[in-house]
Design a protein that fits this description.
46% of the residues lie in helices and 21% in strands. With 103 residues, it is of the alpha+beta class. Strand 1 and strand 2 form a beta hairpin.
Length: 103
């Protein structure tokens, strides 16, 4: 049978284990602080908005570049112009919405 340890021995053993645990925690905490300092990042600068925009209808050629602009309430005129240009030039023209800065 194993010999029994005295109360005094058990208390000393528990105190030694507690001290060793505190040292290990302190080392981990110090290492964690070093890692945390390295991970700092900068905030991205907010982009400025272009201000107020208005919608217009743009008649585009087959490559997508704008040929004519019409006010938003003149969609029918823009579509007629696209149809006329398609027939005259033999290449497809189309209408799309676009946002441009307010003048």
């Amino acid at each position: 049978m194993p010999a029994r340890s005295s109360n005094k021995d058990r208390i000393a053993k528990a105190a030694a284990e507690a001290a060793a645990g505190k040292k290990a925690k302190a080392k981990k905490k110090a290492a964690k602080k070093k890692v945390a300092k390295k991970k700092t990042s900068r905030k991205k600068a907010a982009t400025k908005s272009a201000g107020r925009l208005k919608l217009v209808w743009v008649v585009c050629d087959h490559s997508g570049s704008g040929v004519k602009e019409f006010a938003f309430n003149e969609e029918k005129l823009a579509r007629k112009e696209a149809k006329r240009l398609s027939e005259d030039k033999g290449k497809a023209h189309f209408v799309k919405k676009d946002k441009i800065p307010l003048e």
